[in-house]
Amino acid sequence: MALSQADVLAGLKEIVEEVAGIPAASIELDKNFTDDLEVDSLSMVEVVVAAEERFGIKIPDEKVTDLATVGDAVNFIVNAAK
Amino acid sequence: MATIKSSKGSEAQIVSVGTFRPARLVPNSEIVDRIDSSDEWIQQRTGIESRRFAGPHESVIDMAQAASEMALKRAKLTIADIDTVIVATITFPYQAPSAATALIERLGNPKAAAFDVGAACAGFCYGLGMANDLIRGGTSKNILVVGVEKISDFTDPDDRATAFIFADGAGAVVVSAADHVGIGPTIWGSDAANRDAILMEPAWTDYKKTPQSTIEQLKWPNIEQQGQTVFRWAVFEMSKAALRTLEAAGVTVDQLGAFIPHQANYRIIEAMARQMEIPDSVVIADDIKTNGNTSAASIPLAMDALLEKHPELHGSLALLIGYGAGLVYAGQVVQLPPAPK
């Protein structure tokens, strides 16, 4: 099922807010998970698994380190869901 | 053809718990320089503030003996009453005979049935499950189940992935025949596709193949771990296994007094509790914060610490789940032992 960038961003905002307690309003495409949002590697694993379940996709462990920004994650999920 | 007689036992329960914690408390400040880390970083990622390391003259058997003697005393039994001893460990430094036979000799009942369980951090729950079934099958009446590790002997103090996690200690429980169900069904299994997520290599035979090698040339079999793979499996697969364990016992999460998972990492414990929607009324074991990850010993150590802090939980229901290298796991709902008299 094709997903729009806006849908994925909205879903990801909810997940990051729930897992890491970061207000959804501060989560934007250009934000870096580690440097801007202070989502550490373990919280990132929780975000990834929640995203897999929500969007029906797989994000392998070796890909997780490539997802530096929220935009990287959104693009990966949009492409994986095509 | 003659018919074969069968044995039938009874239900079983944990009647006591005993522990041994090495005296040497090692704060994060003693670990951080060699791994270029900080107290804050370690606490944030694992919840660990300190851990205990055994001294050079404190062996796996010394620690197991001390924990066992405490458990026996609290159960008001002697070693002569024990017919079976199960020791869970991955750090007894001899291929054979087993740690369990060394322990029964030391405790003074060299005739008891004795064997080791190699299920890493799940070893205690593997042993407890077998103890329950041995009593239910009529093979044994009183069993000592011991989890013991001296992982400091197998940890590289320069390994940034493991040096701050692991610790030493021993915990033991006495499991005895009972007139009610004190230990629920064991839910267990493996995920051997992730066999390399936690490793202790090389094989002993590698030393034999290259006899000219020194220990410096061939690495020592220290524990190695792929933290994120283990975290993902632990949080998401183990919370499901834990819920299956509750279902098998016919107990709902709000009926628990305590949740005592393997003390691997407090972040894993918190994330599991979130996944499982454990209510605030359930006390969650957090022994890892001050005593580190003691592998097979962590559940009985955490159980004893929790009962000391919350004596009202003696006799209440607890969910146990152990998981570790293999990857392997096992869980049970148990009735916590009564307060020692």
UniProtKB/TrEMBL annotation, chain A:
GO terms for cellular component: cytosol; membrane. GO terms for molecular function: acyl binding; acyl carrier activity. GO terms for biological process: lipid A biosynthetic process. PROSITE patterns: CARRIER (PS50075). Gene3D superfamilies: ACP-like. The keyword Phosphoprotein applies. Residues 6-81 form the Carrier domain. InterPro entries: ACP, ACP-like_sf, PP-bd_ACP. Keywords: Phosphopantetheine, Phosphoprotein. This is Unannotated protein. It comes from freshwater metagenome.
From TrEMBL, chain B:
One of its GO terms (molecular function) is 3-oxoacyl-[acyl-carrier-protein] synthase activity. GO terms for biological process: fatty acid biosynthetic process; secondary metabolite biosynthetic process. Pathway: Lipid metabolism. Keywords: Acyltransferase, Cytoplasm, Fatty acid biosynthesis, Fatty acid metabolism, Lipid biosynthesis, Lipid metabolism, Transferase. The keyword Lipid metabolism applies. SUPFAM superfamilies: Thiolase-like. Residues 115-191 form the Beta-ketoacyl-[acyl-carrier-protein] synthase III N-terminal domain. InterPro entries: ACP_syn_III_C, ACP_syn_III_N, FabH, Thiolase-like. The keyword Transport does not apply. This is Unannotated protein.
